[in-house]
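Sharing a chain and its predicted structure for anyone who wants a worked example. Both blocks are below, sequence first, tokens second.
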Amino acid sequence: MKKTVVLFLKYLSLFLLVMSMSCEKSEPQNNAELVAQLTQLIEANQRFLQLVETANNSSKEFQAQFKKNRLLYKKVEWAIEYFAPDTARFINGPALDELEVEENKFLPPNGFQVIEELIFPQYLAENRKALIAELKILNGNLLQLKRQFEQIPITKEQLFDAHQLNVNRLIALGITGFDSPLAQHSIPEAAATLQSFLVLKQQFDSPTFTALEKKVRESQSYCRAHNDFNSFDRAEFILRFVQPIGVLLQQLKMEQRVADVDRNAAVNQSVASFLAPNAFNVDAFIPDLQNKYSEAKAQLGEALFYDTDLAGNGNRNCASCHQPERAFTDGLKTNVSLHGKSLPRNTPTLTYAALQNAQFWDLRQSDLEKQSKDVITNKDEMHGDLAVFSKKVNASKKYAKLIKAAFPKEEQLDPAKIQVAIASYVRSLTAFNSAFDRYFRGETTAMNAEERAGFNVFAGKAKCATCHFIPVFNGTVPPVFAKTEQEVIGTPATAANKQLSPDLGRYAIHQLPQLRNAFKTPTLRNVAKTAPYMHNGVYSSLEQVVDFYNRGGGVGVGLKVDNQTLPSDPLNLTIQEQKQLIAFLKTLNDR
């Protein structure tokens, strides 16, 4: 409890400062309805606590109360996640330790998902003490939030921004089981999330809002009529209901002449959802403003990418291992050194690498600039020298025009500018033109019935989307995309699944026990072109990968993985569902 309170207070002063600065654009709105909803949630949580403290109730009673409380939470989630994201982590975050790797420590999880594990699939009396403790912590955090929202202002700009994020949250997390892994109550909760959009009526009662309200009601009716988690048609729901709500939100925003919030957003604030064309802002992931993307920098970077002088021996370039025809991988089980020796890890795709906050399988570098230097100077991979290479580039006439266009104020390239240019080229490798993308932009023939069914398996029964988040399908968490996650899935050393891979992954960088055998969750975009799979290239086909996950990862195939974050229970996918899933994965190939 103390750790959670300290974390809350740590960010409260910064938050209040930001709020006071942001209020200059428009008059603050009345928070009365939001505070009333929080009060309802607090009272419901107190009733749950009293149930546990005073009676020997059955699992069904506890589970029913839990579901009621979560429905109340979903109505206020938009505000809590937007205005108090660090506190939100301890109200509805994953039931996993929160790691602070730079400080070599961790905070235990709290909140709804921890409570869910204590009462689903069945409540045991031995969990009573832990359940009471968790409910008290949750109550304390909710009371703090109520006091916060009684005092802070909310501007029109923030109101629209928060609800636009909520559209994307609903698609990526709300209907995938991300925060309801055991209760599988995601679809009724989606209906409660939709209710939160109606808070806009207080300020924007207009014909456009009337249309928005009608679409929200239709969406809620759809959820109530199709509330089974596994059979819910997510493709239809997103296309027919969620995206139109995003469009109406944007129309209302334009009518009301509401400006964007001044923040470096990963998703452009003018789009209806992150499935729209040109939705992503690659500059949200740059380490410094001087590294801003431009086509001229990307063109220079492309030339550098294919220059063999980058390597110390002059006969290898970036494309030697990142081949465009293979979606910028090499097709090998693991990478090969300059001297023909097999290296321990598989070469990952560079497509969509720009849309994550950590690079390499072990997340050891934070951005693409550092990633390029790491590879170029690595004695096994390229053994190059950026200072030496920059002199060669500056002496070459073929680069003069490209340098001038990319860096007009610079006459020559230094090593840092070379890193920026190569990183800019990698940032250009975000096409978003796959069959999946075209389908959700209205080209409904882009995916056939089997592929659409596969998407619903991916985002539903197979639980793939709880780690490979829509729409980038990597481990960078939407809708803010501020953090890239790692997972422990228990990857075996060989396809025989007899022993665990000896590669310690991120643990070799940060010695926290939770990170033993932990690896970055890679993008699944272009996955049909990037075999073999896993950090060690252990599986040669998508069929093998799907079978591994279907059996419950490393633990499921019989390996000892004490810290596996992947659920170890079998998914029980049928042969048909596995085929549908693979068919969908192939729709993620760029044209």
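Comments welcome. Residues 59-83 form the longest helix (25 residues).
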